[in-house]
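Renewal narrative, Specific Aim 1. Our central claim is that a sequence can be written position by position from structural information alone. The example that follows is taken directly from our test logs and has not been curated for this report. It begins with the structure tokens describing the chain, in the order in which they were read.
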């Protein structure tokens, strides 16, 4: 297990290239299961979650080859229709195999994911939608077993605009007989990217990015050949890093239209954004100002940026109120930030952050992916040398952070425990 040692206080400067989006790459790679043959996905980030999805595909009988940001997947010989507990436990996105397996082979068995560090995270809406499409669902020894002769189009209303739920159902509906309407669908850019990937395979999908998605099922899809969108959360994390280090960073290759809410909040916090030929230049103020945020489904402020924004607010001038409305337990980073001297109190889903002038170093423990990103943001501005343990969480979602940060002048070392 590795740890990161960060000596804070440097003003980060330079440019950084944003990688492909993890949360778009995972469903799009799995969409290859909807067709038979060789598919390729480019701009795939080099992350632990991508290796896990490759293992899952190989377990099902597919060939998976990943090199130089490109995944090549051969789905001609799928012989197993199950996502086992060991893989779902390490990566919840494994539940995204249900839709494609059920639609193409009429059967899928997937371990029911348990709760995780950020909340209970049930998949009842995924299953409800599949049942509406005619699937028979049973629960047996912790596994969901879904069967269907051929799925049929249905009118499905999602009580919550679930991201992976929308993705699972959109994939299933692409090969169903007839038309599916997904109402109150998630609008996240990753959902739109998956829809575009499916359309490139021959799927008939309208309205992705809006709250009603219409899918006219087809009999067959072509193999996939697609390039992933840039990771908006990685880009937002580097913007926060510019903010907390009074830095001057050019963020290259991101899609700014996916970051409206975070950028507006970062401007409120005193950051300056300037369009330059290489990308977006982000300049941090001498000290950030307090700004309130409430996480919401897209286009609202993303829950995946909440922890990093809180780290920034911990040294802001004034008090900010941060409300988490998507997950019930996504404040695990608070205890760690407090160990650095941050003045944060939590009541229910609301954190009150009274900005202090300077954070101090401390030994810290990463608890989940975005919490670890927030600890890095905080450590970069802290006095002294901060050690962050359990950085394997970070490696699930940030490509080569220990190279990108020193590229901006940060004093970061990765050390074996
Ligand atoms: N929910 C239900 N029932 C369901 C599905 C969801 O009650 O059947 C609830 C969840 O418990 C949660 C809320 O609905 O309270 C929203 O969850 P959603 O299903 O939208 O989240 P997800 O699809 O499991 C994806 C991302 C997360 C990101 C969320 C919200 C992937 C692989 N994961 O999760 O990413 O936080 O959407 O935007 O796309 C991360 O990258 O760090 C991460 C956790």
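The sequence written for that structure reads:
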């Amino acid at each position: 297990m590795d740890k990161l040692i960060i000596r804070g206080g440097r003003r980060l400067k330079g440019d950084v290239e944003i990688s492909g989006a993890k949360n778009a790459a995972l469903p799009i790679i799995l969409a290859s299961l909807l067709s038979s043959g060789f598919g390729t996905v480019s701009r795939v980030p080099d992350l632990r979650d991508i290796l896990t999805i490759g293992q899952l595909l190989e377990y099902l009988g597919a060939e998976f080859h990943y090199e130089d940001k490109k995944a090549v997947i051969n789905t001609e010989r799928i012989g197993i229709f199950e996502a086992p507990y060991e893989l779902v436990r390490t990566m919840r996105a494994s539940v995204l195999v249900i839709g494609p397996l059920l639609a193409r082979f009429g059967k899928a068995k997937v371990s029911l994911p348990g709760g995780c560090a950020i909340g209970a995270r049930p998949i009842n809406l995924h299953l409800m939608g599949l049942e509406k499409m005619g699937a028979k669902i049973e629960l047996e020894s912790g596994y969901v077993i879904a069967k269907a002769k051929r799925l049929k189009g249905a009118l499905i209303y999602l009580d919550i605009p679930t991201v992976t739920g929308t993705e699972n159902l959109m994939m299933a509906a692409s090969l169903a007989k007839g038309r599916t309407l997904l109402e109150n669908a998630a609008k996240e850019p990753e959902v739109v990217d998956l829809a575009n990937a499916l359309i490139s395979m021959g799927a008939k999908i309208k309205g992705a990015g809006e709250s009603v998605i219409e899918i006219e099922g087809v009999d067959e899809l072509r193999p996939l050949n697609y390039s992933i969108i840039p990771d908006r959360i990685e880009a937002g994390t580097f913007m926060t890093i510019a903010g907390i280090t009074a830095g001057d960073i050019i963020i290259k290759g991101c899609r700014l239209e996916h970051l409206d809410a975070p950028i507006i909040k970062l401007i409120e916090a005193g950051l300056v954004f300037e369009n330059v030929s290489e990308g977006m230049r982000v300049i941090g103020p001498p000290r950030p100002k307090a700004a309130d945020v409430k996480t919401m489904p897209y286009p609202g402020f993303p829950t995946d940026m909440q922890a990093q924004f809180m780290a920034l607010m911990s040294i802001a001038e004034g008090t900010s109120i941060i409300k988490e409305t998507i997950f019930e337990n996504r404040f695990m980073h608070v205890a760690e930030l407090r160990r650095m001297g941050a003045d944060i109190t939590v009541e229910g889903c609301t954190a009150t952050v009274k900005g202090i002038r300077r954070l101090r170093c401390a030994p810290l423990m990463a608890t989940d992916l975005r919490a670890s990103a927030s600890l890095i943001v905080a450590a970069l501005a802290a006095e002294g040398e901060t050690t962050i343990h359990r950085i394997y969480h970070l490696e699930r979602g940030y490509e080569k952070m220990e190279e990108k940060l020193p590229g901006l002048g940060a004093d970061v070392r990765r050390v074996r425990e």
